[in-house]
Each structure stands twice: as C-alpha cells, then as structure tokens.
Design brief:
The chain has 196 residues and is an alpha/beta fold. It has seven helices and seven strands, in the order H-H-E-H-E-H-E-H-E-H-E-H-E-E. A seven-stranded mixed beta sheet has the order 3-2-1-4-5-7-6, with helices on both faces. Helix 2 crosses helix 3.
Length: 196
C-alpha cells in the first residue's frame, strides 16, 4: 500500500538536506512516459534517498526497479524510505559503484533512468543500451546542467561535467540507433528511444 504521507516526508527531507532529487516538472514528463509505456522493469543509476524509484512505482505500480547507489549512507536511507512508503517489494537497491555493478547485470529492462555522476554518463549509456529491450527508453536527467551545457560556459569547477554531458548529448543525437529528444524541463532531460 503506497503511503502518500511518508512519500511527501521523504521529498521534504531531501529538499531540506539539499539531496538532489528529481524536479517536479521533470517528474511530470517521466509520469507521462511511465503511464504510456507501462514498463515492468526499470534500471535506475543513482538512487539517492529512493525518491525517484518510489515515484516510478507510484506511476507504474507493477514495476520492479533495480537501482544502484554508490553512497552507502544514502543507500541505507533509501532502504528505510522505500519500506516506510510501502514500495520495498518493488525496489531492489544495490550498493556500490555503478561502473562495476552494471557489467554484472543481465536481463532486459524497459526503461533506464540515469541520474548519477555526470562524468560517467557515456559509460552508463553504453551499459543502458546493452541492457535495454529493443524499443525501450533511456532517460538521462540534468543533461543541460544549469544551462552550462548549451552555453559557452568554461569555468574550471564544472568544466569536466559539462564536457561529459556535451559528449553524452552528441552520442545520443548522432547514433543512428537512438532517437533522442532533449527537453528543457528541470535541469534538462534527454529522452532516448533505442532501436537495436
């Protein structure tokens, strides 16, 4: 039973503690995709406190979500959160480095949601393509990164992230097997349909 009250508490606490969670307008787009596609298996890279994984179950109640989180403290918080929300039967949280975990995964996913280290988006993409079913969707959050990615921004602090995100966008828009739309919602969302 989905506990709406606990769900709202998780969201409020994440915002108070500056934990990056999916933005409302991005979530609206994701909700529409989930309702249309009706995925049964989702792979999420970057669990944080379990908010987005819980959102996926809220909008696609039959779905099973495999999600990977590097930060052990956050992952344990996510485990507690999904229990309180009542979606722990649908969510499998793996603790560790996605770069190491992804190659060990098998089976097919209907949807892959990328929201982790920006510098690794290209690695996550190639693993996502390998693991997704034909016609499945890969979503990458924060691809416009505060608007820096599409501007001539070059400050040292974010330069690496910006460069990697530009490479990701180039890859998903130029690969003939990928059909991509970059949406200016939240901090930028890349919606990629994969044809194999």
């Amino acid at each position: 039973m989905f506990n709406e009250k606990e769900f709202e508490i998780v969201k409020e606490r994440a915002l108070e503690n500056h934990v990056p969670i999916i933005m409302d307008d991005t979530l609206e787009v994701v909700k529409n995709i989930l309702e249309k596609e009706k995925p049964t298996r989702i792979l999420e890279i970057g669990t944080a406190v379990g908010y987005s994984a819980s959102c996926f179950v809220k909008y696609a109640p039959e779905v099973i979500v495999d999600t990977i989180e590097l930060d052990e403290v956050r992952a344990n918080e996510a485990i507690e959160n999904v229990k309180k929300i009542g979606v722990d039967k649908n969510i499998n949280i793996m603790i560790g480095n996605a770069v190491e975990i992804l190659p060990t995964l098998t089976g097919e996913y209907d949807l892959v949601f990328i929201d982790a280290a920006k510098s690794k988006y290209s690695i996550f993409l190639s693993e996502g393509i390998r693991l997704i079913r034909n016609g499945g969707i890969i979503l990458a959050d924060n691809v416009l990164y505060k608007g820096y990615v599409m501007s001539d921004y070059n400050k040292h602090k974010q330069r690496t992230a910006v460069r990697h995100l530009r490479e990701y966008i180039k890859e998903v828009t130029e690969n003939p097997n990928l059909e991509t739309e970059i949406l200016e919602v939240g901090d930028g969302l890349a919606v990629t349909r994969v044809t194999k």
